[in-house]
Automatic annotation (TrEMBL):
This is ABC transporter, ATP-binding protein. Pfam families: ABC_tran. Keywords: ATP-binding, Nucleotide-binding, Transport. It comes from the Bacteria. GO terms for molecular function: ATP binding; ATP hydrolysis activity. It comes from Paraglaciecola arctica BSs20135. Belongs to the ABC transporter superfamily. Residues 2-233 form the ABC transporter domain. The keyword Nucleotide-binding applies. InterPro entries: AAA+_ATPase, ABC_transporter-like_ATP-bd, ABC_transporter-like_CS, MacB-like_ATP-bd, P-loop_NTPase.
Length: 233
C-alpha cells in the first residue's frame, strides 16, 4: 500500500541545507495501521504531507495505492487526495457552515458515491446520531473529532492519515477517539498512518515507528532497537 524508497527531503536553514528525511525507506501493507512518533521537528508532519501529495520529495520514490506521487501535477494530486485519502487533523478542520451529516457525507458526494446505510452506520458507531443536524460549533472537541473521523472514512479511501488526532483532546476523549479510529479502520479494512506523541494512542497500532535523524526505526516501548533504514511496518 505504501512504498517509500530512499526518500530525501531537505529544507534551507539559513545558508545551509538540512536533510529532515534522509534516505528514508518505509513499507506498509494494506489494511495495517502504524503509529509514528518522534521529537518535535523530526519531520513527522513533513512525511505525512509527502504521503498526502501535499509536498514533494527531493529524492526517492513514494508510492501509495499503486500510484507514484513524485512529480504529480496539481490536478493529479487533487484527484489522488479526493479518491484515495482520508485525513484527520489535530484541529478537526470541519466545514463550519455544514451540519454534522453534510460534513460526514461530503467526501462521498465529492466522489459521486451513494449516500446511505454505510454513512448512517458510521454516525451510529461514532455516537453522533443525536448530533446529525447540528453545526460543528455546537459540538465538544471530542465530538468534533469523531465527526472528522467519520468524514475521513466516508468514501472508504485507500489510506487514512491522522496528524496528532488527539492533540486537542483531554485524556478520556483521546482514548475514546483513538479506539474508534483504529477499530473502524480495521473493521473497514483501511490502511492507517497516525502521527502521535502519545504512547497510549500509539499502543492501538499494529506497529510503532520512531522518526529519528531522518529515518524510521522500529519502536516498542523501548528506545529504538533497529538502526537499519529499511522499515516494514
Ligand atoms: N516549509 C518549511 N520551510 C522551512 N522549514 C520547514 C518547513 N516545514 C517544516 N520545516 C522544518 O522542518 C522540520 C520538520 O518539521 P515537521 O513539522 O515535519 O516536524 P514534526 O516532527 O511534525 O514536528 P511537531 O511534532 O512539532 O509537529 C522542522 O525543523 C521545521 O522547522
Amino acid at each position: 500500500m505504501i512504498e517509500v524508497i530512499g526518500l530525501v527531503k531537505q529544507i534551507t536553514d539559513g545558508h545551509s541545507n538540512k536533510k529532515i528525511l534522509d534516505a528514508l525507506d518505509f513499507h506498509l501493507k494494506a489494511k495495517k495501521s502504524v503509529a509514528i512518533s518522534g521529537d518535535s521537528g523530526s519531520g513527522k508532519s513533513t512525511l505525512l504531507n509527502i504521503l498526502a501529495a501535499l509536498d514533494n520529495a527531493d529524492k526517492g520514490v513514494v508510492k501509495v495505492a499503486g500510484l507514484t506521487l513524485n512529480n504529480m501535477s496539481e490536478v493529479q494530486a487533487d484527484q489522488f487526495r479526493k479518491k484515495h485519502l482520508g485525513i484527520v487533523f489535530q484541529q478537526f478542520n470541519l466545514i463550519d457552515c455544514l451540519s454534522v451529516w453534510d460534513n460526514i457525507t461530503f467526501p462521498a458526494r465529492l466522489n459521486g458515491l451513494p449516500i446511505g446505510p454505510f454513512h448512517n452506520d458510521l454516525l451510529e458507531q461514532l455516537g453522533l446520531k443525536s448530533h446529525k443536524h447540528k453545526l460543528p460549533v455546537n459540538l465538544s472537541g471530542g465530538e468534533q473529532q469523531r465527526v472528522a473521523i467519520a468524514r475521513a472514512l466516508s468514501h472508504q479511501p485507500s489510506l487514512v492519515l491522522a496528524d496528532e488526532p488527539t492533540g486537542n483532546l483531554d485524556d478520556n476523549n483521546s482514548q475514546v477517539v483513538s479506539e474508534l479510529l483504529f477499530r473502524l479502520c480495521k473493521q473497514l479494512g483501511l490502511t492507517l498512518v497516525v502521527v502521535t506523541h502519545s504512547p497510549k494512542v500509539a499502543a492501538f497500532a499494529d506497529s510503532r515507528l520512531l522518526l529519528q535523524q531522518g529515518r524510521l526505526h522500529a519502536f516498542s516501548n523501548q528506545p529504538p532497537n533497529q538502526t537499519s533504514n529499511l522499515v516494514s511496518a
